[in-house]
Target: DoxX-like protein
Amino acid sequence: MAVLTRTDPATQAFVLLRTVFTVAPILFGLDKFFNLLVDWPVYLAPWIDSIVPGSPQTAMYIVGVIEIVAGVLVALQPKWGGLVVAAWLLGIIVNLLTLPGYYDVALRDVGLLVGALALSRLASR
Model:
């Protein structure tokens, strides 16, 4: 088994992935409350809106809390946090694929899902 150091490529990849999958979900989760980056409710498929009680913005508040918790979980337990983020991204992908016009964002999220799975695997070392 290789010794992991700060100069080891696997260690560097782990640190990069852990950092981005901690910071991004927390920041995007916080933005669900303020809509500074984008008007988040437009990304909610109508069929999901019909399931979640309240307005689309209320659904985004719930999404925001989940994303913040996922980011904190990645920081504390990257092996499990990476899996939670990957599962969450899968849900986002399903939502986007049922909402015309956002297929490019869904494709981007497939890449992020793979990155979250890679983080989980690297955390297993």
